[in-house]
Amino acid sequence: MTDQPLSIDDVLTTVRDALDRGAIQDAIAVLEQLRPPDQAEVFEELDTDDQAALLPRLEPDDSANILEELEDEDAADVAEQIDPTSLARILDEMEPDEAADLLGDLDPDHARRALAQMEEADDVRPLLIHSDDSAGGLMTSEFLVLRQRMTVQDAIQALREWSPSEDFAYYLYVVDRDNVLRGVVSLRKLITADPRALLQDIMDTDLITVKAGTDQEEVARIMSKYDLLALPVVNDAGHMLGVITYDDVVDVIEEEASEDILHLGGVLDEESAVGPVRTSVRRRLPWLYVNLVTAFLAAGVISLFKGTIERVAILAAFQAIVAGQGGNAGTQALTVMVRSLALGEINLRDTWRALVKEVAVGLINGLAVGAVVGLIVFILQGDPLLGLIISLAMVGNLIAAGIAGTLVPITLRRFKFDPALGSGVIVTTVTDVCGFGLFLGLATVFIQWLT
After folding, report:
1. CATH number of the domain that 87 lies in?
2. What is the pLDDT of residues 8-33, one digit of tens each?
3. Which terminus of the chain, N or C, has fewer Cβ atoms within 10 Å?
4. What is the rounded radius of gyration, in angstroms, for the C-alpha atoms of the chain?
5. Which is nearest to 405 in space by CA: 420, 385, 415?
């Protein structure tokens, strides 16, 4: 019977026990038996002092794998505790794009001293000028370019001499004498082609490229749409600057999805469910203040109908139903729109079509929900007019919810803002104001028959 592998919790306990005994080599031996993601999972649970003590004493490639697997902020915190010489050895083992990202998150002086001692610094320096959330920030400078008039046999020999890493994406790029990208050859095609054939005769010239300044979300959309394992980055002259690989895009998709979810919930930056209280307060409080302003706006609308509520007090109870359902409908429309914008399913030209669709949905749902609410109110209060008023208000507010849920994110995108950021607050404000205004306004018009 084979031994069952230890769980991450068991490994963590073993490592901590070894560190408590001062047996740091025992802790290292346990960590080096794990896969990189498991190493990172155990490592991030350790105290900062233990992390700083362990990382430089691991094999450089293990240390590099751990830093690549950690969240950016956590990796930077650990790297700040490591002396520049040890950090440089670890950075040399990292992919150039990962090393550049980490250096960009460090104190400039610490990053500069580490970079100065790196053997692979020339591969990393060109990447430091690009924003982390751009194609230039995602790309790696490790790629092989071949000449158009090379034979297949010469290309295979060049590939052997290059000795690519295991993360190599199996695409080879072909340039002309001016180093302008002209085509791409898959490794499979290269192996199966006639050794005497020229690359210009077997390469695919239907190229998909991006510029270094392209936003990472657009990069992810392009690679997903065309099922690409790698995407070349070029400058205005068509010269290759780097390559973005599929593993980097997976991280981008996760990051962008997390960001949209947090923004829709009114959280500005990523935070952990078990993170520091002060960090969570700092990131959530600004939007609570914004919500407070919009709450006073809704309260102001209610105050306009103070006299109506005083004469028919039951209106105060039912107004929340209209506003609440409008908020729910607005959130539904908003979520669909933000997702569609993020995936590139719609653009600004589709605004009218999307708006008509959401108005129709709002109308149908409003009639369906309004009929049920109106019937319930009639049964509870015995007043058919009150049931009709709340039904009409419901229809109007769900239509308003569809309009707001469509136009708000599209408008934010039009002005280069994140569609998820602030959309929820604005849409909720619209549905609250419209819901209270429609319901209490109609009640005011028909007040003499309600009393």
Report:
1. 1.25.60.10
2. 778 888 888 888 888 888 888 888 88
3. N
4. 30
5. 420
In this structure, the answer to whether residues 296 and 441 fall within a common structural domain is yes
Domain stops at, among 129, 159, 174: 129
Q: Which long-range contacts (CB under 8 A, 24 or more apart) does 426-430 make?
A: 427/327, 427/330, 427/331, 427/333, 427/334, 427/401, 428/294, 428/327, 428/330, 428/331, 429/294, 429/297, 429/298, 430/330, 430/400, 430/401, 430/404
Question: Number of folded domains in the chain?
Answer: 3
3-class SS at 148?
coil
Residue 137 in any domain: the answer is no
Token representation of residue 366? 């409003």
Domain region containing 305: 277-450
pLDDT tens readout for residues 167-223: 566 788 999 888 899 999 988 898 899 999 999 999 999 999 999 999 888 888 888
pTM of the predicted structure, to 2 decimals: 0.59
What dihedral do alpha carbons 36, 41, 46, 48 form, nearest 10°? Answer: 70
Tokens 């490591």 belong to residue: 82
Q: Give the rounded distance of the alpha carbon of 350 from its chain centre.
A: 23
Domain boundary among 129, 158, 178: 129
Burial of 425 (0-12, 13-18, 19+ CB in 10 A): middle
CATH number of the domain within which 352 lies? 1.10.357.20
For residues 80 and 223, state if they share a domain. no
Amino acid making up residue 115: L
Whether 312 and 447 have beta carbons less than 8 Å apart is answered as: yes
Contact 271, 279 (CB under 8 A): yes
Query: In a 10 Å sphere around its CB, with 0-12 CB exposed, 13-18 middle and 19+ buried, how is residue 382 labelled?
Result: exposed
